[in-house]
Amino acid sequence: MKERIQLTVNGEVHDIVVDGNKTLMEVLREDLRLTGTKHGCELGECGTCTVLLDGEPVLSCLLLALDAEDSKIGTVEGLAAGSAPHELQIAFGELGASQCGYCSPGMLVSAAALLRDNPAPKREEIRDYLAGNLCRCTGYLKILEAIELAADRVSERRAAGETSPEHRIPARPAAEHGPDLEPIEGKRGSA
Amino acid sequence: MSDRHKLNVIGTPAAKVDGLTKSTGQEIYADDIDLPKMLFGKMLGAIVPHARIVSIDTSKAAALPGVKAIITGDDMPRKYGILPVSEDEYPLETDRVRFVGDPVAAVAAVDEATAEEAVRLIEVEYEELPTAFDIDEGLAPVAEEARIHDYGPRDNVHKLVNLHFGDVEGAIERADTVHEGVYFYSGNNHLAMEEHSAVAQYGADGRLTVWSSTQTPHYVHKAMAKVLDMPASRIRIVATPNGGGFGGKSDPFPHEFCAAKLSMESGRPVKITLTREEVFYMHRGRHPVLMWLRTGHDDQGHITALDFKSFVDGGSYGSYGVASTYYTGALQTVTYKIPNYRFRGVRVFTNKPACGPKRGHGTPQPRYALEIHLDKVAEKLGLDPVRMRRSMLVDEYTMTANHMRVTSCGLDECLAKIAEAADFERVRGTLPYGKGIGVAVGSYLSGAGLPIYWNKMPHTSVDLKVDRGGGVCAKCMEIDIGQGSNSVLAMTVAEVLGLTPDDVQLVVSDTDTTPIDLGSYSSRVTFMMGNAAKEAAEKIRDMLVAAVAEKLGLNATELVLRHRRVEHHGTGEGMRFAEAVPIAEAMFGQLSSTGSYTPPRLAGPYKGSGVGPSPAYSYSAAAVLVDVDPETGIVTPERVWMAHDVGRAVNPMLVEGQVEGSVYMALGEILMEEQVFRNGLHKIPSMLEYKSPTFLEMPPVETFIVESIDGEGPFGAKEVGQGPLLPMPPAVANAVYDAVGVRIDELPITPEKVMAALADKEKGGPGRFGPGGVPEVDFGEVLAVDPVWYDQPPEDWIPTVRRGEES
Amino acid sequence: MLRLPPFDFRNARSAAEAVDLWGESEGRAMFVAGGTDLIPNMKRRQFEPPVLVGIRRLEGGRDLQTDDGLELGAGVTLRQLAAAPNVRESYPGLAEAAGQVANLQIQRVGTIGGNLCVDTRCNYYNQTYEWRRSVGFCMKKDGDICLVAPGSSKCWAISSSDSAPILMALGATVDVLGTDGPRTISLGDMYQDDGIEYLTLKPGELMTAVRVPAPGNGQRSTYVKVRRRGSFDFPILGVGASLRIEDGRVRDARLVLGAVHTHPLAVTGVSELMEGETPTLELCEAAAELAYKRATPLDNADLVYYWRKQVTRVHVRRALARLCGLEVAPGGVR
Predict the structure, then answer these.
(1) Residue-wise pLDDT tens digits, B420-434
(2) What's this model's pTM, rounded to 2 decimal places?
(3) What is the CATH number of domain C219-323?
(4) Residues B663, A85: C-beta atoms closer than 8 Å
(5) Long-range contacts: B31-37, Cβ < 8 Å, 24+?
(6) Which of A42, A53, A188 sits opposite C2 (nearest CB)?
(7) Architecture field, domain A87-159
(8) CA nearest B44 in C: which residue?
(9) What's domain C1-59's architecture?
C-alpha cells in the first residue's frame, strides 16, 4: 500500500509517496536515488547499508521507512560539506581504505559517528565500534589507518580553532543513551 | 641510476585515482543504475539437485498483473561456457537441472516484488535423477542417462590429467628418505560485498547494451553473441566497477543473459540483481580438493622427486574447471628445485553449484599440502624449516621440470625477511604450550601466459589520445575490481609522460569504446596492461620529444618528460607539456597511440602445458604467530609477517593493501569459511552463517615489499593481488602444530578438528586430523615429458636481467 | 534484493494502544520494536503478518530505573543497557550480554523485550522460502516434521537470546499486558520446551517491562557468549551466572545456559552444590559437569554439536571461576 511520508535525509526534507512495506534502504536508493547507501545481504548480516538515524549508525535494511519519519537520517552523501569531502572520505581515498569501495559508505558513516563521540579513538576502540561492518577487500587495516589519520587531522584543525568537519554529522538527541561506552570485558570473549 | 631515469610516479605511494569517487558514494555500481521504464528481472532456480525437466508451466505467472516477459530455456537454446572445451551451460536449462538453484525460467516485471511473486507461480515438474555430492560419489560408476553431463572420459569424470616429467619412480627409489601425505582443502566463497547485478537495454536501433558487475567484459561479450545468436558488433558490454570480485565474477552468468533476453522480449531495460543466497549458488567458488603427495629427499632435505595427485570436486558445470585442475598441479615446481615431477589429477562433476576460480585459482590447495608436508619432512630430518626451504629454492632465470619459465625470483629474500622479523629460529620451539609460529611460501602468476581461447592476438591494448588542451585520455577494457588497476593505468601513463596520475583521464571496461583487455583475472592486469600502457605512452612521448627538439633546436635524445614539462635533462630548457602538445599535433596530426602486449610463447611441448606458464611469477613468504586454546581448540592468529616479491611496487600503498587483503581472505579460509552442503543443498547460504572475519578477527600484519625488478614486467613489476594468499593457510597449520603438537591436514582449521586431533594424540595416536586416504583412480595414459633442460639455461636463452643489474 | 511482503504499519504510542491495535487486527498483527529479528524473518517469509504494530515509541518504553532493583521498559535498547553505568556496575552480566548481541548497529535499535522474545533459531528454519521448499518444509513453518530430529514430535529450534540466561540467573520478572489486562511472571516461566511455541505468552500479550531484584551483598554476575566471531553471530552457547561470595563462601549460585536447548536452560543442582562452599576450581568443575550433562545442542547451528556440548564444561568452569575470583586458564575466558 502506498503511504505518504516525510523523510529528513542529510538535512533535506523529502515529501514522498512510497510503498509502505519498503525498508529505509530501499526508499533511500530507489525513491530518493541516494544510491551511495549500498546493500550486501538485506538481512542485517553485513553492515553495508549502515546509515545514521538521529546520529546513530543503524542498518537501513532492517528499518521500515515509515518508522524513520520522525528521525533525522544521514547517509554517505551527507558527509561532505558541499563539494568538500569529509576528512574521513579524504583519508579513505588517500590511504586505499576503499578498495572496491562497496563497504565504504556504511563504514564511513559508522566512523563519522565514532569520531563525533570520540575524537581520538584508540585502535581497539575503532575495531570494536566498526565490528558490525564487513569488508572483504582490505583486511580492515587500511581502514583503521585512515580513521586514525582523519582523527588526527580533525584534532589538529580543532586545535587551530577551525570548524571541524564532524559538525556535519547530525548530533544525537540529548543524552538519551548516555555515553556510548566501551562494552566491558567478554566482548571478544568467544571464538 | 642517473637522475635522468628517476621514476617520479612509479614506486611512490599514491591515492587511488578513484578513491574519492568511492569514498563519497559517487561510484555507480551495476545495481545503482536506474533507466527510464526499467523492469526488474528474477530467475527461478531448481529446488532439486539433479532432475530431468518434464514440463514448465508459466501460464499463471504470465497472468499476474505487472509481468512483462517470461523466458525459459527454449528461448536461448545455445550453450556457452568460459572455456571452449567445456561449453556445457545454458542460461536457463532446457532439459535437465544439475544443482539446487540451477535457473530454469526468468521473469521481468514492473517491480522486483512482482517478479518474485511471478517466479513462484511458475510450475516445474521434475523427474529426479541419481545424484553425486562429493568426490567419491563423483568417481563412482553411473548409468549413462544419470550422468551429470554427456561428455568427459567416463561416468561423472570431467577431466583426467596424467603428466610425468623425468623419472619419479627412479628418483623415489634412490632417495634417502621418502615421505607421503594426504590433505583436503574445503571449498569456499568469494563473498564479494556486492551481489552480482546486470542491467540490459535492447534499443530500438537493434543494439544491446549490458552493464554488469563482471571481471571479464570481453568473455561476456563473446558468450552473449553466441547465446543470443547476434553479431558481437551489435552488443556492447560495459563492466561496472565491481564491488569486489576475487574471481567470483569471472564467468558469464545466467542473469546477464536473462536480463538481455528479457529486455529484447519486453522492449524495456531490465535489471537483475542476485540475492545473497543466489550468489552462493552462482558464484563459482573455490574447488574442494583432496590431495595425495609423495616426495623423495636427499639427506639435506632437498626434494629429488614429487609425485602429486589431485581429486577436484567440480560441482555441476565445467566453468574454469579444466584449468583449475591443471592449476592444482602446475605451480608446485616454481618455488623449489624439483628435478622429477609427476602430476595426476581428476575433476568430477557433482550436483552442487559449479566451482571456478577464487583468488589463487587452484594453487592454494596444493600449496597447503606441500608446505605442511615440507614442515613435517623438516621435523623428521631435524632441519630448520626456513633453512631447509632456503637451501632448495629455484634459481632466478631457470626452467622447471614441467617447463615453467622462471624469470625474476625474490623468494630467498622474502624468506630471509620474515624469518628475521619474526625472529623465527629463536622463537620456534621456545613458545609456551598453546602458542606457536609457522612459516610457508608461495608463488603465483603475473597473468596467464595463454588466453582462455587460443589465438595469437594481444591480451591487452591501451589507446592514448592527447587533447589539444594537454589532456591525456587512456582507454582500456580493463576493469577495476578494487585491486587498483585504474590507478596502475593512470600511473603508468603519467610516469612515461611526466605527468601526475590525476592528469590522466580514463575510459575503461567498455567493449564499444575501449581496446581489448581480457579481464581482471589471473593477476594479469598490472603486468600486461602496464606493458601496453607503457608502450602507448612511449609512442606519444617520442612524438612530443621530436616536436620539441625540432622547435627548440635541441637533441631529441637529451629530452625528458617530467614535472609536466618536456625539457633537457640537464639544463631544463624546454616547455610545458600542454605547450608541447599543439606543436606535436601540428607535426604529426592527432596525437594518438596504441600499445599492446602479447606474452612470449611460453607453453611447453605437451598437452596441458597452457596452464601454468606466466611471463613472471610473484613470490611470497609468511610467518604467523598463533594462539591455540587447548581446552576449546580455538585458533587465534596473533601476528602475521608477510614478504612479497612484487617485482616492482608500482604503488607501494596499494601493494600493501593487496597483501593485507590476501592475508585477510586467507585467514577466513583457514579458520572459518566453508561451503557446506546437505544433499546438494547449500547449508548456510547467508552472510550470517557463512562466517567471514570481522575487524575483530584480523591480526596485525607486517608487510615487506621485495622488489626483484622483473626483466619483462612494466618497470619490473609483477603481481600482488593473489600471491600473498598462498602461504597463509599452511603457515597457520604449521603454527598450530608448533603450538599444541597436532597436525590439521584439512581446511578450515575449526576448533572441533583441533580438539579431535588433541584427543587422538592423548590416546597415543599421531595427533592428526585429516583425510585417511585417496580413492583408486585410473588416470588414463601417462603423458611422459622430458624436462628438456633443467637448471642449465642454453646460452641463447632469454635476455636476463639479474638482481642489482637493472638499468 | 530480498524484500518484505506487504503489510499495514500502525505505530502505537502506548502499550494499551498497541494491544488494542492487535485486537483490531483480529489477532493477526505482530508487534515490531527494533525489528532486527522480525524483519529478516519476514523477508524470508517466516512471518507474513498483514499488520505490524510499531512499539518503538511507546510511552515509558525506554525508561531505565535503578532505584530499587532494576526496572526496564521493554523498549530499552540493548545499547542503553550495555552502556548504562549503573547496570555495568550492579548487573555486569546483563551489560555484558546486551553488549554482545550481534553488533552495535543491532544493539542500537534492538530492545531488551525483543531480545527476550527473539525467535528460536535453526539452520533448517532461518532460510528463505525457496530454500525451505527445496529441503522440504519443517514443522516450525509450513511443514510437519522436524528436520534436525526427524523422529521428534516437537520442534528443536534453539533459544538464542543472549539476555535471557543472565536475566534468569538474576531472578528477573517481566510485566506483560494483554487484552485481559496486565500480569507479572517470572522470566523463566515465560519460556517452554517447544521450539515453535517457545513463549508462554498468550496471543496479543505484549511485554512492557523487565524487573531485576537489587543485587544482594557480594553479588557478582557474568555472561559468557560463545560464537565464531566477535560480532554479528548469535550464541552457540551462552552462560549466564550469578552468585554471591559472603564470608568466603558461595551463596545463591544460579547458572542458566543459552543456545543449548529450545529454552534457556536453568542448570538445577548448581545452587545446592555450591551453596555455602568455599570457592575452588574443583567446585566450579563439578558445577560445570552438571551443566555439561544438561546441555543438548543439536546439529542445527554453527559448529558441530558435540564440540558445543564439550566446551560447555570449559566455559561454565571458567565463568564460575572468574566469578569466584579464582585463577583461570592463561588467555582468560575464551
Answers:
(1) 999 999 999 899 999
(2) 0.96
(3) 3.30.390.50
(4) no
(5) B31/A39, B31/B194, B31/B195, B31/B197, B31/B213, B31/B271, B31/B273, B31/C1, B32/A29, B32/A35, B33/B199, B33/B211, B33/B240, B33/B271, B34/A30, B34/A33, B34/A35, B35/B199, B35/B201, B35/B269, B36/B269, B37/B268, B37/B269
(6) A42
(7) Orthogonal Bundle (1.10)
(8) C130
(9) 2-Layer Sandwich (3.30)
